[in-house]
Amino acid sequence: MTTGHVFIATSLDGFIARRDGAIDWLPGLETDPGENYGYDGFIESIDGLVMGRNSFEKALEFETWPYSRPTIVLSHTLDDMALRGDIRKAVEISRLAPGDLMAALAQRGWSRVHVDGGKVIQSFLREGLIADMVITRVPVLLGAGLPLFGALPADVSLAHDETRAYPSGLVQSRYRVR
Amino acid sequence: MTTGHVFIATSLDGFIARRDGAIDWLPGLETDPGENYGYDGFIESIDGLVMGRNSFEKALEFETWPYSRPTIVLSHTLDDMALRGDIRKAVEISRLAPGDLMAALAQRGWSRVHVDGGKVIQSFLREGLIADMVITRVPVLLGAGLPLFGALPADVSLAHDETRAYPSGLVQSRYRVR
Lengths: 178, 178
Hints:
Distance between the termini of chain A: 16 Å
Helix content of chain A: 10-25%
CATH class of chain A: Alpha Beta
CATH superfamily of chain A: Dihydrofolate Reductase, subunit A
Structural class of chain A: alpha/beta
Number of strands of chain A: 11
Largest sheet of chain A: 8 strands, mixed
CATH architecture of chain A: 3-Layer(aba) Sandwich
Largest interface: A-B, 34 and 34 residues
Order of helices and strands of chain A: EEHEHEEHEHEEEEE
CATH topology of chain A: Dihydrofolate Reductase, subunit A
Number of helices of chain A: 4
Strand content of chain A: 25-35%
Mean pLDDT of chain A: 94
Oligomer: homodimer
Number of domains of chain A: 1
Strand order of the largest sheet of chain A: 5-4-3-6-1-7-11-10
Low-confidence stretches of chain A: none
């Protein structure tokens, strides 16, 4: 079975971006020189990414495509044909529902998927497709923005694995979904 | 000057209670026998509490009044005269705005106030009256409820002081408001 894995930063009040998608409040690399907060190790452990259109459009703003693993973009409005030439090999658009997508990815031999973006994480959590989450808290309150979490059909009980505080003030916790 | 201090538990998705005020998802004392998560030390450090009507009515559900420090309840609808006999010495109703209340408490010689309850914490944060917050994360997602944080006129930058993970899975972080 293919499992979903979250690795994401939020403000202390639970937002992953401002309302307009801005992530200016995330500390830059200069805050902890040489520190990648475990991201490189996480990326090495996954077979590919699943994200929504918002995260995809955010990624397109980088000069070069920022992800080294194959990426599935969940969208009903985008089309493979419209993809920029340089990312056509890295990115695939899918209209599948979360469960159907995970079944399709299992067929391809993917075992671990990085699930990214608020709405996509929420829909995968609702379907019970997330195995664990690494959440890094940035010491700031934004007051408004795009939330990491959303409505659920029932409580989701978690097991705390590990927490690490960084000199920059970021606090990273890993939880398994029970 | 009198400073406001927060000591509160939230679900991982940032709720301090379910929509109806229920806190059944908070771990009981049996989870970490003899562990009070630093609450006793915190209470010893404060001169009194400020809370809203919701927290007050929650406290009234206990067989005996649960707070050992003088308590101010912010309410426009309650009245001192309506207070139950056994808590008349412990509780006072106030209609003052946060800043005016803190000025009045300073006059009384209070230096540290425990600010409790979502709406009251949010209004004190908006007025810059909170000095630090101890937030204890319970490893559960509720999906809905009464949020700890709310809208703000601007970002609130925090400094991370300390984080401690408990065997029960609770993770407690202390932040100073910059």
